[in-house]
């Protein structure tokens, strides 16, 4: 197999206004430590040797996608024996030699020639697993949000860049032609100055705004609770409180509704409007706050610097079925009524999803039926899908749209919003210093807690 050396990394070059980067065939050497391997690349048509950390939920969906693409499933890992066996049964017909692991550290220490690792664990373990995989020479597909803390996001990008890794965050809409068309229209300049964006979500659909239970339950032989906790603080196991799925609302393990959905719902305009660092972030409205879990419903106001225009752009996030007040955008409310979804208010128009209403008009119409929107040129290549794009990038194709040059700043902005849901008041962010200018409590949440015996870097 003719592969580029694992002690090399790719040189990349920009080719399109949509931000797509093509992977060069050549690589230049980097000076790596003895514990690091530069990522290698495959030839077109080669199958990827893949490992999966995390089964069930998104892990099950991701496994199905890559297995369906014909990739070689080498190893599977989960702390839940039932889920692990379920994953194996899904792929055994074609990949019956796949090995099963409970501890991802053992998997990565044993499987030496992995091309890619897919990470679908709870949020608090994303960084530890992804960074270990990258240091082993693998490209990584990581579920959203990419990581749980801002410090982890910065470390992810630093290490991925050093090792020449292809990454993809699991915000699947980036692979759709609909979202790529939306980005092209939004970034075209026909909307004039961008003033505000309003984004709503029906999440949470899991328990939060609760206190920790006082008692505990026997763990049972099928679950390794210590490995599930991983880097997080020790706490007693309680059945149906954390695993499976109900971890999202806990500060130590998840990122609540905003972490779950905003990396999907904000990705298109984040790219199109060239949002840069956060200037300020504030949870301007909230239901009752709890010491260990996110509130049931919040409104978060984040002000971003933009590389597209001189004026900052304000993004409002609403969760728990909260909606913008009709007074925010009376014209859109008069036509649509319900302001759920995504509403973009600009100098010349209002955009809702794939529909536009110009200031001189009194109705919304689809981009394809609008004269100005229909003239916007196609600039972002269309792909067969989000997972396909990641796999093809490792075989020398275009860099994925949700590569870490996009997913890290997007995730950082979302995570700052999550901090505002825990710390009251307007938080003033210093991106260069990676700290808030005015909040000691907020700064305590920038770095993760890492339990003894575990590590992230």
Write a structural description:
The longest helix is centred in the last third of the chain and has 17 residues. A ten-stranded mixed sheet has the order 16-15-14-13-9-12-11-10-17-18. Strands 5-4-3-6-7-8 form a six-stranded parallel sheet, with helices on both faces. It is built from 14 helices and 18 strands. Helix 5 packs antiparallel against helix 13 and helix 8 runs antiparallel to helix 13. The two termini are about 30 Å apart. It has a domain of about 190 residues: Dihydrodipicolinate Reductase, domain 2 (2-Layer Sandwich). The chain has about 450 residues and is α/β, with parallel strands linked by helices. Helix content is about 30%, strand content about 20%.
SS element count, helices: 14
CATH homology group of the domain at 177-207 and 258-380 and 406-443: Dihydrodipicolinate Reductase, domain 2
* Helix content estimate: 25-40%
Tell me the name of the CATH class of the domain at 177-207 and 258-380 and 406-443: Alpha Beta
CA-to-CA gap between the ends?
31 Å
Largest sheet: 10 strands, mixed
Q: Report the CATH topology name of the domain at 177-207 and 258-380 and 406-443.
A: Dihydrodipicolinate Reductase, domain 2
Poorly predicted runs are 1-34
Topology, number of strands: 18
What's the gyration radius in Å?
22 Å
Mean pLDDT: 92
Q: How do the strands of the widest beta sheet line up side by side?
A: 16-15-14-13-9-12-11-10-17-18
Q: Strand percentage, roughly?
A: 15-25%
């Amino acid at each position: 197999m003719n592969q580029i050396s694992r002690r090399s990394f790719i040189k990349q070059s920009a080719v399109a206004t949509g931000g797509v980067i093509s992977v060069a065939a050549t690589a230049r050497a980097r000076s790596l430590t003895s514990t690091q391997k530069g990522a290698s690349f495959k030839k077109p048509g080669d199958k990827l040797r893949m490992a999966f950390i995390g089964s069930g939920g998104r892990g099950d969906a991701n496994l199905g996608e890559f297995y369906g693409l014909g990739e070689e499933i080498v190893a599977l890992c989960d702390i839940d024996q039932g889920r692990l066996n379920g994953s194996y049964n899904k792929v055994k017909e074609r990949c019956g030699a796949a090995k099963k692991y409970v501890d991802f550290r053992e998997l990565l220490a044993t499987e030496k020639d992995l091309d890619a690792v897919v990470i679908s664990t709870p949020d608090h373990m994303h960084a530890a697993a992804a960074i270990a995989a990258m240091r082993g020479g693998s490209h990584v597909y990581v579920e959203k949000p990419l990581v749980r803390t801002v410090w982890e996001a910065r470390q992810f990008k630093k290490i991925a860049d050093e090792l020449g890794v292809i990454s993809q965050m699991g915000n699947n809409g980036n692979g759709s032609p609909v979202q790529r068309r939306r980005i092209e229209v939004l970034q075209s300049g026909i909307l004039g100055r961008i003033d505000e964006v309003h984004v709503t979500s029906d999440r949470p659909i899991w328990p939060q705004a609760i206190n920790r239970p006082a008692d505990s339950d026997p763990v049972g032989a099928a679950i390794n609770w210590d490995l599930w906790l991983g880097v997080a603080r020790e706490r007693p196991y309680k059945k149906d409180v954390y695993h499976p799925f109900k971890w999202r609302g806990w500060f130590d393990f998840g990122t609540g509704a905003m972490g779950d959905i905003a990396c999907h719902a904000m990705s298109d305009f984040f790219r199109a409007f060239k949002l840069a660092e956060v200037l300020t972030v504030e949870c301007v409205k909230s239901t009752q706050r709890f010491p260990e879990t996110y509130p049931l419903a919040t409104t978060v106001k984040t002000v971003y610097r933009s590389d597209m225009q001189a004026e900052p752009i304000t993004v409002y996030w609403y969760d728990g079925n909260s909606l913008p007040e009709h007074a925010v955008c009376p014209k859109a409310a008069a036509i649509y009524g319900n302001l759920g979804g995504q509403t973009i208010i600009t100098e010349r128009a209002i955009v809702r999803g794939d529909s536009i209403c110009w200031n001189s008009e009194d109705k919304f119409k689809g981009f394809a039926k609008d004269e100005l929107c229909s003239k916007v040129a196609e600039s972002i290549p269309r792909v067969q899908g989000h997972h396909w794009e990641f796999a093809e990038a490792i075989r020398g194709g275009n860099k994925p749209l949700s590569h870490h040059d996009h997913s890290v700043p997007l995730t950082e902005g979302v995570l700052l919003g999550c901090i505002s849901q825990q710390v009251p008041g307007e938080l003033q962010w210093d991106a260069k210093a990676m700290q808030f200018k005015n909040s000691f409590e907020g700064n305590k949440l920038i770095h993760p807690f890492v339990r003894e015996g575990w590590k992230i870097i």
